[in-house]
Design goal:
The chain is an alpha/beta fold. It is built from 6 helices and 5 strands, in the order αααααβαββββ.
């Protein structure tokens, strides 16, 4: 695992044609292998030295530490690198665009949702947008007295009030981030 992790981090393994991961995921997995590998290398080393070391309690503690430390470090590194828990990498990279970041960090964003039920994929995107939008408000009816100018996540199939003049800032699949100005 240590050699594989080093190969991933140095870019040596990017020539492998059957790997279909993006660069961030690939780099994160290399870090996981590089962190978990030494703990698992220590297991056979301790096994071979079990007769040479005099204190059996010390060997047992080190053995248990190596068994537990490797998987826990691997799980921690999976979480820290974003490999585990990044449920929509394309949405996350979309939300890191400069125009989207400035709006989401500085302005409250309303959600205008369709009246019909959303499909599974659109519900997932809606949930993730709620998580990644720090200042959010809900306007289920498009003409419900929004202050202008305001920003809106327009869901798929949702309709804006006719008096509003939307300016599209960004769009992701069927979702649009709009700036609304009333005349």
């Amino acid at each position: 695992m240590v050699l594989a992790g080093a190969a991933v981090l140095t870019g040596f393994s990017q020539a492998v044609p059957f790997v279909k991961l993006d660069a961030n995921t690939f780099h994160g997995l290399g870090l996981v292998m590089l962190v978990a590998g030494p703990a698992w290398i220590a297991l056979p080393i301790l096994w071979l030295q079990r007769r040479q070391l005099r204190r059996q309690a010390l060997i047992a503690q080190r053995w248990l530490m190596c068994w537990l430390l490797g998987p826990w470090l691997a799980l921690a590194m999976l979480g820290l690198t974003g490999v585990w828990g990044n449920f929509s990498p394309d949405l996350k990279s979309f939300l890191e665009q400069p125009a989207v970041v400035t709006v989401l960090q500085s302005q409250p964003v309303h959600f205008v949702l369709p009246t019909a039920r959303m499909t599974g994929e659109n519900r997932k995107i809606h949930l993730l947008l709620k998580v990644y939008t720090p200042q959010r408000e809900y306007s289920l009816q498009p003409s419900a007295g929004l202050q202008t100018p305001t920003y809106v996540w327009l869901g798929p199939g949702a309709v804006l009030a006719p008096a509003w003049r939307p300016t599209q800032i960004a769009s992701f699949k069927e979702w649009q981030l709009l700036q609304i100005v009333q005349p």
